[in-house]
Amino acid sequence: MTNAVKKRADRIAEDQAMITGTEKFLATLTALPVGGTNMTPADIVNVFKIRVDASKAVQTAAAALIAAVKADRDTRAKTSATARAFRRIVLGMFQEAPDTLAIFNLKAPKAAKSTVAVKAAAVAKNKATREARGTVGKRKKLAIKGTVPAANGAEPTPAVAATGAGPTAGGATTTPGSTPAKPTA
Question: How many structural domains compose the chain?
Fold first, then answer.
């Protein structure tokens, strides 16, 4: 016998060979001294049958385990989207109640902390994007004025800014907060 680790199928085959050999060559003996006790050939065969049955039960259980693990993985793969969605719903419903989330074995999500380098990169990217697209802020948009086309084909006149200062009907200018001068007739 070698010291190498034997496979279960090899051990079953060896035990089965011991049963076959005992039944064929030792069945006529009345007793054999085995391990300090006298045993009949039928007792020896029973010991090896118990070993074979135990090994076969392990093989059956191992096959059942493999099948059960595969069934578990398949079930989890099919239901993972539903489970993830439900977890998100529970987190949304009970985000402010950590004791309730603990019952579901969930923890409230922590706010992501951005480093200074990440924030600086985001600002630079935003600025580059605005320049590439030609977008401007609210104040710059107010400063942009268009021209009104003339109805008689003359040169277009620029639109009057709504700053509050401009000519009145009598030619006088007004400033915000003052009243227009009355024309003399």
Answer: 2
